[in-house]
Design brief:
Distance between the termini: 25 Å
Number of helices: 0
Oligomer: single chain
Number of domains: 1
Radius of gyration: 13 Å
Strand content: 35-45%
Shape: globular
Helix content: under 10%
Largest sheet: 3 strands, antiparallel
Strand order of the largest sheet: 1-3-2
Organism: Suillus luteus UH-Slu-Lm8-n1
Structural class: mainly beta
InterPro entries: Endo/exonu/phosph_ase_sf (IPR036691)
Number of strands: 6
Protein name: Endonuclease/exonuclease/phosphatase domain-containing protein
Length: 90
């Protein structure tokens, strides 16, 4: 269970809203470079074993990467925000 969110609301504490049923995954630069606006957030269900997935660091505030692992192998999911004026994120 994953939810990829584009242009999430970020409050004054630099968090988005989610309940205890979800882990919130922010871009790797979210807390270290707060001057960059966070434009992609991914929610991953708390019911998924935390040993079955990991976030992969990426140097952009517009990208969240998750890798799921299991008996099927690995599955990498990219949540990429790309504004309509350029393709610089890509």
């Amino acid at each position: 269970d994953l939810i990829a969110i584009q242009e999430p609301h970020i409050n004054f504490l630099r968090n988005t809203s989610a309940n205890h049923h979800w882990h919130v995954l922010y871009p790797s630069l979210h807390y270290t470079q707060p001057q960059h606006k966070t434009r992609a957030v991914t929610l991953i269900s708390a019911s998924l074993d935390t040993n079955s997935w990991k976030q992969i660091s990426f140097p952009s505030s517009d990208v969240v990467i998750i890798q799921l692992s299991g008996p099927y192998g690995n599955c990498t999911i990219f949540n990429i925000y790309n504004d309509c004026n350029s393709s610089s994120t890509l």
